[in-house]
Amino acid sequence: MATVRKSTLSDVARRAGVSATTASYILNGRSAQMRIAPATQDRVLKAAADLRYRPNPSARSLRTSTTRTVGVISDLVAGGSFASQMLTGASAAARMLAHLIVIGESQGDPQLEALLVEEMLDRHVDGIIYATLATSEVSVPRPLRQQRVVLLNCVDRATQLPAVLPDEYEGGRTAVAELLAGEVPGEIHVVGEMSSEGGSLAGPLRLDGIRDALREAGRDLAGVLSCPWDVAPAFDVVDGFLRDGGRAAGLVCLNDRVALGTFQALAEHGLVVPDDVSVVSFDGSELAGWLRPRLTSVAIPYADLGARAVEMLLDTKEQGPSVVRVPMPVARGTSVLRAR
Amino acid sequence: MATVRKSTLSDVARRAGVSATTASYILNGRSAQMRIAPATQDRVLKAAADLRYRPNPSARSLRTSTTRTVGVISDLVAGGSFASQMLTGASAAARMLAHLIVIGESQGDPQLEALLVEEMLDRHVDGIIYATLATSEVSVPRPLRQQRVVLLNCVDRATQLPAVLPDEYEGGRTAVAELLAGEVPGEIHVVGEMSSEGGSLAGPLRLDGIRDALREAGRDLAGVLSCPWDVAPAFDVVDGFLRDGGRAAGLVCLNDRVALGTFQALAEHGLVVPDDVSVVSFDGSELAGWLRPRLTSVAIPYADLGARAVEMLLDTKEQGPSVVRVPMPVARGTSVLRAR
DNA sequence: TGATCCTGCTGATTCGATTCAGCATGTGGT
DNA sequence: ACCACATGCTGAATCGAATCAGCAGGATCA
User: Angle of helix B20-27 relative to helix B9-16, nearest 10 degrees?
Assistant: First the structure.
C-alpha cells in the first residue's frame, strides 16, 4: 500500500516559483482574466505535468460544493440487463462530462430509497437520476424534489420533473411497420396485458401506436390476447387461443418474454414462424437474438436513455421541466414472413 | 434548488454550548477516552439530532483521506445481467459497511480502463473491485497493484491479488449430482467449448468436476460436443450430433445459452426433455426459468460474488492474498427425468 | 515631478471536520 | 497549606484548493 505521496497545488507552485494562488488560476484556465504572463503560465503547466499533479477532489469539493459525481438511484430488482445497459450509457455520458457515477439500488423499498437519497445528498452529488425498471408513474421522495433530478423511464405527474422515456407510441407504430413490411395474409393480434393497473405506461402507449398504424394501413387489430408480460402466461394464453381454433397471421407481442412464450405455444401446435405466423415484439433484448428464428423486436434504448438522462442532468442551461422521448430502434430478425 | 443550508459541526457545538472539538469527539464515539461527561454527551447528541446534523464527507475526506466509497471497474460489455446482479450484491454489502459504490466500465478498452483507474484513485476511493464478465486470467493495470484491490471473477497469477470466484469445480460436481439424482439410462455428453484459448477458466474446471463426479458414480463421460458458448453454435453441434445418429440420455450444457440451443436442436429432432433426454446447465440465468420445461442450472452467484468482494475489500484485517471460491447453488427446474 | 493607470502577481481567509497538546478546575494526600 | 493528579473540556493547526482584496513596480500623462 506504499502509495506515492500525491503532489499538491503548493508543490506545483513551489516548483514553478510562484504562489499557490497563481498556480490555481493558471490550472483553472483563468490566466486571461488574471493577466498571467505567458512565461509564468508555461512554467506552472510544466511543473504540474512534471509532478503529475492531480487536484484533490475532496479539497475542491469542500470549497466549491460540487463533486463531479452523479447519483443513480433505481429500483432495478436485479436480473434484467436493464440496469446494466442503462448504466453503460450513463457511465459513458458521465465520462464525457468528467463525472463519475455513484449507484444505489432501492430494491423497491421506500425506506432504503430514502436512505440512499440522503446518503447521496450528503455526498453532494451534482445531480440524481431516478430510474425505474418498468416505465411507470412514480412519486419521487420528498428530499429529491428540490434537487437537480432527472427521471429515467418514469414520470411524476405531481412535480413536473424532467424525464427521459422511450418513445413507446412511435415504437408501437414501428412494430406494425415491421410486420406490414412483410406478408401478413390474415388476422393480426396483440399478445400481452393492457390493464392499466400496475402503473406501467408502456403497454397502453404501444397499443395506441399499434392501433393507429394499423388503421392508417387499412387493416385492423383482430384482438388482444391479454396476459401478464411473462413467458408462462403468454404460452398459456396463446396455447388457449389456438386450442380454441383461433388463427392469426401476425402477432405483436408486448415484450420479448411474451414472444418466447408465444413461440413455444406456436411450436406446440406445429405452427412455424414466420411461414405460418409472423411475430414482432418489444424490448430488443438478447433473448430476441437467441430465438429460432431470430425475433424482430422494437428495442428499448436503455443505453441511450441513460446517456440522455446524464446529459440533461448536467446540462447547465437549466431549461424548465421537459420530457424527452427517445426513439426505439428495431432489432431485426427473421420472424416476419418476407413479402413475395 | 433552494436547498436548506446544511448545519455544520460548529452549529451543533454552539447549540450544545461546547466547542467543536468536544462535539467532534462525542459524535465520533470517542467520549470515553476523552472523558466527556454524560450530560454533555446528551446535549451534543440532542443538538445534532435537532439540527439534523450530517457530517460533510468532503471535509472529512480531506482530513482523513478516506471517502467511504468503493470503485468497481469492469469490462462488462453491457447486456448480460452479470453486471446488474453483481452490482446489486456489491451495493448491498457496501451499504452494510456504510459505503457507496462508484462504477466505471472499461468496455474492454485498456486505455479507458487506465483512465477510470486514475479517476478513481484521484477521488481516493477506499478500494477497487476489478471485475470481468467471463471468469478469466487478467493482468491488472499498473497503478492498481499497490492499492487495495479485489479481483472479481478473475485472477492475476503474476500479482497474487486477492480474488473472489465461483467454485466452478464443485459446480461441475453439482451438475452431475443433479443429473444422477434422476434417471439417466444412457450416455452422458457435455455440450460446450473446452479449448483453453480465450482465457476463460470456467470451462476446464467445470469439466474436471463433471468428470470426477461421474467417475465416482461409476459412470463415464461419453463425449464432449465442442462449440462456442452460444445459442446458434450449440444448436448446430447438437443438431449435427443427432443427425449423425448420436444419442444421449443426459446432456450437461456449459451454460444456459448453450442449453437453449440444445433444447432447440432436440425439439427439431422430436426429442422431448426430460423424457428422452435430461439436461442440466450452468449460469442460473433468467433464461433457465423461461424454457419449457424449466431448466435445472447450476447458478453463478453473481450477487454473492459482488458482496464477498466488497467485504474482502473493506475487511481491515488485512489478511494476505487469498482466493475465495463461492459455492454455486442450483436453480432447479424439471429438465431432469425423475427417478422412478 | 508627481498623480494615475496598467500589469502581474501574492497574502490571507475560507470551506467543515479531525486531532494534538494543553489549560482550568476540583479532589485527595500529607 | 501545598503539591500531585484526575477530570472535563478547548485553542489552534491541519488537510488542499479556491478566491477576494490588494500590493509592488513600471509605463503614461500632464
Answer: 100
CA distance A163 to A100: 20
Say yes or no for a CB contact (<8 Å) between B102 and A100: yes
Residue B190: partners with Cβ closer than 8 Å, 6 or more residues away: B207, B210, B221, B223, B224, B225, B251, B252, B253, B254
In DSSP notation, A68-127 reads SEEEEEE---TTSSHHHHHHHHHHHHHHHTT-EEEEEE-TT-HHHHHHHHHHHHHTT-S-
Using left for φ > 0, alpha for ψ between -120 and 50, and beta otherwise, residue B29 falls in: left
* B192-212 confidence digits (pLDDT tens): 876 655 567 888 899 999 999
The label of the residue with cell 467511504 reads B68
- Which nucleotides of chain D have an atom under 7 angstroms from any protein CB? 7-12, 14-21
Asked whether residue B61's C-beta has any atom of DNA/RNA strand D within 7 A, the reply is no
Cell triple for residue A15? 516548483
A180: which residues sit within 8 A by CB, 6+ positions away? A213, A217, A219
Domains of chain B: 9-55 (1.10.260.40), 67-166+302-326 (3.40.50.2300), 168-301 (3.40.50.2300)
How close does chain A come to B219, measured CA to CA in Å? 33
> What mean pLDDT do residues A274-282 have?
94
Q: Does B109 touch chain A (CB under 8 A)?
A: no
Cα gap A242→A269, rounded to integer Å? 8
Exposure letters B105-122 (e unless 16+ CB within 10 A, then b): bbeeeeebbeebbebbbb
Q: How far is the CA of A35 from the C1' of C5 (A)?
A: 15
Q: Is A70 exposed, middle or buried (0-12, 13-18, 19+ CB in 10 A)?
A: buried
Other Cβ atoms closer than 10 A to B39:
8
Q: What is the pLDDT of residues A221-271, one digit of tens each?
A: 998 999 998 899 999 999 999 999 989 989 999 999 999 999 999 999 999
Over residues B82-96, the mean pLDDT reads: 88
Angle between helix B231-243 and helix B256-268 axes, rounded to 10 deg: 40
> What pLDDT, in 10s, does the model give residues A201-224?
888 899 999 999 999 999 989 989
Of B120, B148, B286, the CB nearest to A1: B148
A206 neighbors A232 (Cβ within 8 angstroms): no
Interface of B with A in 21-80 (CB under 8 A): 54-59, 61-62, 65, 67, 69, 76, 78-80
Residue pair B301/B331 in contact by the 8 Å Cβ criterion: no
Nearest Cβ partner for A78 among B84, B95, B260: B84
